[in-house]
Amino acid sequence: MLQFFSKYKFFAIVLFVLSAIIISIIYSILKPDRVLPVYEPDMVNVELVDSTVQYIRKYHKIADFKLINQNGKEVTQLDYKDKIYVADFFFTTCQTICPIMTGHMKEIQERLKSDTDVLLLSHSVTPKIDDVARLKKYAVDKGVDDSKWNLVTGDKKQIYDLARKSYLAAKSDGDGGPYDMVHTENFILVDKKKHIRGFYDGTNPEEIDRLMEDITILKEEISKN
Question: Distance of alpha carbon 149 from its chain centroid, rounded?
Fold first, then answer.
């Protein structure tokens, strides 16, 4: 019996390796790679979408923008060209959800510190209060890496239109006027083609982990195309 096993030992090893390879191939076929959806306005809760874009079913992209960051530098869509980025909306005097969201953005910044493909973008929803000096102080206090994360201020109507018509992130209606207020906990994942690929509750640690996983999935998708 021992002589039999000794004689066919090499054959058994080869058979075992081939079986493992075949099983892994079958498993990969039965379980395809997860792909993130490309969100169009008609796929999103109507409460989050401006009525002018609610029925768009394809080709939705983040609109061009021109804002000012914490260093007084002009920031446009060109600064995010060929980058994946995470966007949100906040204000420096907020005492409720914003400190939690900023803390989670800082966590994302640290976890992606060496990843030059991913950036962060936080829009102030009280731009008249959050001037460059206030944003700079906030950035220093919160440990913002200027090369990774822009806190931006500028024209209120432009910022509010971005929230409602581009990022599909604001539940309230309004025109960006003096009494209009956007307050949203959403983090939005944007790909290199300016498409929305995910929404996340920026106050929930589990959602931050899901966002990090989705960034990995998105990077893998991009590398294959």
Answer: 12
CA distance 79 to 102: 21
DSSP structure class, residue 153: B
Distance CA 102, CA 100 (A): 5
Rg (CA), the chain: 23
Distance between CA atoms of residues 66 and 115, nearest Å: 25
- Residue 190 and residue 83: Cα distance in Å, rounded? 9
Which neighbouring-strand residues pair with 202? none
- Strand-pairing partners, residue 89, are 123
Q: What is the DSSP letter of 39?
A: B
pLDDT digits (tens, 9 = 90+) for 27-85: 455 556 788 999 999 999 888 888 888 888 999 999 999 999 999 999 999 999 999 99
Strand ranges, E, within 30-173 = 66-68, 74-76, 84-90, 118-124, 149-152
Rounded distance between C-alpha atoms, residue 141 and residue 156, angstroms: 24
Instruction: Could you list the beta-strand ranges (E) of the chain.
Output: 66-68, 74-76, 84-90, 118-124, 149-152, 186-190, 196-201
- Please tell me whether the overall predicted TM-score, pTM, comes out greater than 0.90 for this model: no
Strands 118-124 and 84-90: parallel
DSSP state of 13: H
